[in-house]
Each structure stands twice: as structure tokens, then as C-alpha cells.
Amino acid sequence: MKGILSKIVERGHYKFVDHVDTWQEAVKLSTDTLVETGYCDADYYDQIVKCIEKYGPYVVFEHYVAMPHSQEGVTGVHKTSVGFMRVKDIVSFGKDEAGEEKEAKLFFTLASENPDEHLSNIQSLMAVFMNEPLLDALMEANTPEDILAAEDKYYTEEF
Amino acid sequence: MSKLDNKKFMVCCANGAGSSLMMKMTLQKVLDKNGIKPASIHHCALSEGKSAAINQDIVFCARNFKNTFADAEKKGVTVIGLKNIMSAPEMEQALKDADLLD
User: Of A34, A49, A159, B37, which is the most buried if we count CB atoms within 10 A?
Assistant: First the structure.
């Protein structure tokens, strides 16, 4: 089935990294492909980092998934997409207020300009985030072909 | 008739752009499953939600933002902080714990 991951691959919005030193650097790297293709400005990541610094690592979900994003009506975002990045080594965002360690290996960074497309992306991402076999496969991905194969094998709109 | 019919729901996250939309979908799923017809489901950022909460019946947020709604909670609004905003079972259980769902 063709879903959000195919779209990410078609647009070249993917990146595979072995290690990053800080979550701030990870957020920046995860926006690189969006910047290179004109979807957002180079300083967009800075707004995301400020948001996370202000509100805590609430963008990190279960199963090593992070969804860095900023506000609706943010400046410097020109088109709607999702930037995917897989990091081999765990990236730590620190503890949340409940004392739980927030860690990520899969980044799905949101650029939102068109509300309808954004909503549909969020809907598809939610189906990805609830799908542990798919997430496990994505953590092992090294090429765009791996992403597509994982989607093909595991993606379903039911969650 | 459920206690949750015709209630006003609000889902709130820091930005009102990402996880609040996911929470809205989770909530929709829980309500559909239980045949509940809400009056409204509003999604927004914390900055707006803080003042809007008082006009709602039930507010959902990530658990680390729960304190933001302490005032509304004192005035009788049900405020539910979620560990996993995408988990329908967690949301359903929280509504049961609040004695709002059988």
C-alpha cells in the first residue's frame, strides 16, 4: 500500500545517520532535506528547538519516535511535508516531568503550510506510530528502498 | 444515553498543530466506539487552551501539561493527562476512571 512513507521517499525527504551528539543537532539534521528542497527555511529547526526547550520533550512518543514540529502559522515554512530521519544510536531528549527518559531513533519532522495536507499527513503518521512492526523495520532501514519495503510489508491504515 | 453525549471536549498540545490533532483522532475513535455524540471537539495550543478550558466539559492533554489546567479543574472541568496521546485504550480507561464512561 502507498502511504506517507512513499511520499517521503518520492520527495527525497529522508536521511540515515549513525550518531548525533545532541537532540538539537538531530532536529537540525532532520530538517535538512526539507531545507534543500525548498519546503522550509534553514532556520526553521531553531523554532522547533525553542519550542521543545520551552515545553519539554513532549514531541517524543513511545517506541523511539519523535515528531519535531512548531506552531501553526509558523514563519519559514513554504510547503507541507514530513522529513524522515533514522538515527542508529539513541538520541536522548532528557526526562519529561514525570521523570521518564525520552529517547528517539526515528524522526518525523513536520513542515505544515497547507492545513488539509497536514491533517492527512498527521493521520497517516499516527497509523505509522501505532504500528510497532513497521517502526522496528524503519529503525533497521538504511536505504530508501528499505523504507518502501517496510511500508509495503507492514503499513496499514487501521490502527 | 451516555454521560459523555453532548459534552464539550477540548484537546490541547503545546503548538496546537501536531499532537493535539492526534489526540483528537484518538478521542474520535473512543467516542465512535462507544456510540457517543459529543457537542464539540476543539483542538488548540496551550496558550489558547488555558483560558478556553473553563468553557469545556472535558480537557485532554499530554500529562506533563496537566498543571496548566489546574484552575479549570478547580472549577469542575474534567482534565485528563495522557501518557500516550495515541492510545485509545488509555483514553477510554481514563474516562472510566473519571466515572464518565461505563
Answer: A34
The ipTM value here is: 0.86
Q: How far apart are CA A49 and CA A74, in angstroms?
A: 13
H or E, element range at B59: strand B58-62
- Residue B55: give the domain boundaries: 8-97
Find chain B residues with C-beta within 8 A of A58's C-beta. Answer: 13-14, 19, 62, 64-65
Would you give per-residue pLDDT tens digits along chain B (102 residues)? 789 999 999 999 988 888 999 999 999 999 999 999 999 999 999 999 999 999 999 999 999 899 999 999 999 999 999 999 999 999 999 999 999 998
Output the pTM of the full model: 0.92
Domain A4-154 has CATH 3.40.930.10: yes
Residue numbers in A near B86 (CB within 8 A): 61, 126, 129-130
Laid out side by side, the sheet with B58-62 consists of B40-45, B8-13, B58-62, B78-82
On whether residue B26 sits in a domain, the answer given is yes
| Helical ranges in chain A per DSSP H | 4-10, 23-36, 44-55, 115-129, 132-139, 144-154
**Nearest-CB residue to A61 (from B15, B46, B86):** B86
